[in-house]
Amino acid sequence: MTGLAWLLPGAPLLAALIGFFLPPAARRPAALVGSLGAAFALGCAVTLMLHDPVAAHVRLASFGSLDVTLGVSVTAIAAVVAVAVGVVALAVQVYSAAYLHDDTNYAPYAAQISLFTAAMLTVVVADDLLVLLVGWEVMGACSYLLIAHDRSLPEAPAAAVKAFLVTRVGDVGFLLGIAVLAVNAKTLDIGEVLAHHYSAGVLTAATLLLLAGVFGKSAQFPFHSWLPDAMAGPTPISALIHAATMVAAGVYVVARLYPLFGASKTAMAVLAVAAAITMLWGACCAMAATDIKKVLAWSTVSQLGYMTGALAVGSPPAALFHLLSHAGFKALLFLCAGAVIHATGSNRIEDAGGLRSRMPVTFWTMTIGLAALVGLPPVSGFWSKENVLSQAEHAEGWQGHLIFIAGMVTVALTAWYSTRLWLRTFFGHYRGEAAKPHDPPALMRGPLLVLAVPAALFGLLAYDKPLGRALGGDLLDLNKMTLVALFLTGIGAVAASAGASHSDPARFLGPLRPLFANAFYFDTVQDYVVVKPVRALARAVGFLDVAVVDGAVEGTGTGSQRVGALVNRLNAPGLPRYATAALAGVLLIAVAALATEVLR
Q1: 10 Å Cβ neighbour count for 432?
Q2: Which ranges in 60-185 belong to alpha helices (H)?
Q3: Would you tell me how many other CB atoms lie within 10 Å of the CB of residue 443?
Q4: How far, in Å, CA of 290 to CA of 417, rounded?
Q5: 337 near 293, Cβ under 8 Å?
Q6: Exposure winner among 230, 371, 474, 485, fewest CB in 10 A?
Q7: How far apart are CA 121 and CA 124, in angstroms?
Q8: What is the 3-state secondary structure (H, E, C) of 321-343?
Q9: How confident is the model at residue 70 (pLDDT cuts 50, 70, 90)?
């Protein structure tokens, strides 16, 4: 089983290496290699899930008392998360083969998906902070490459740069946090790091630094703004990022290192406040979004708030359960959105409408996905979301009250924007320009049907005791507040239904609509507070480099040349005179010597 632990990230890594050597336009071979890599990783994950935990370590080097090892460990929860990653990655590889059938640069795209998958699986199985960091950083590079894949879109390169830079800011803190832990624990082994006793100051510093990286990867306030812009990438990549890789990595890492975070009151307070703001912020922005993918992107931001909120109230099992549930239905929703975009030729909700009868497979699968997002029983999202709310309700301290109130409000807002998206896309009259929108081809329909199964049924595993033991807690904790949450869901859905088939219910938002549509003008503020000052500083540094540093160096050389030329001009005409004078002197000395000799 130890070999399978190494092969779990190794299989997609090998697929990536092979894919990079294929001709760029070799779509079928690249799709086959990428799919096989994902399928093999999925098979390894399923096998490991059915066996006892395994661990393996290889010592690489020693620096004094610090041993650098390459360690992997596949526990029950790591295997379950790896299965979710494998399922989504395989669905994305198969779906992409049809979605990007005309792409002349497909082989690098498929290889980058494989590398992305390998990086996430590395984070999942890492038993060493160094291994975890490698997977963490490779994901950042892959997200940049994949978001910018379609260079014909003017917004794609800018979105890729934004995602890379925003997450990079957080990753600086993440790296420093790992360094603080390693220096104090004298090891990078996660088990030993968790067992080490830290002073309160060191623990607070380390966990806050780690949270900076987590907030960047998992798009938590104030590092959330990159995620909606990342929708400029191909739709299958949106599904991969939102469901199984980047955004899930941050939540998983906090759960993996939870003994450290749980011991720091400051870190837990920061996590709770960020979670509450994030879930409400994302839901509000989704209410006014006009792009299908951005509605789903903002909903991801909001749902991630539920996960980090569960962590903030002390329930990693609830956070991981919602992470797994969300992976299924959010991957399904993005791939359904891709089918709608493929059929209508537009991302805009206003260019859809009346697609229920034209695209029945897409309609029913997206209905399941949206029901899971809203949290309607008995689909998956109901169980995992209600479990988060229940854990928050019973948590001690102000963090529980904050997460519970924010979560209940978000329930109503989620029902509102999900109902709006559902009705405006599939009901009423068709408003697009495409002549005959229809369900996608088989390679795109297949992943929709497959992902609809976990989106609908995964929540029922809340009754499964082995899964509860794998996640580390009780997954089923419903009470009377569940009825209140369902009531709020009904209010949100009914409010969004008012005239939705004829006009956009977002009109009822009034003056809040531009505020939500522009994400509370966060990017504008960020532009003035961060972007413009940094650019001004860069220009100033550039001017100093060119005018002062380069000027001084080049001026020294030029000055030396000019002084040499001046000395040359002054000395060159005098050389004959010097020679004449020297010769005359020699002659005079000779004459004097001769005269002296004669006089004797």
Answers
A1: 18
A2: 76-99, 106-125, 129-147, 155-185
A3: 15
A4: 11
A5: yes
A6: 474
A7: 5
A8: HHHHHHHHHHHHHHHHHHHHHHH
A9: confident
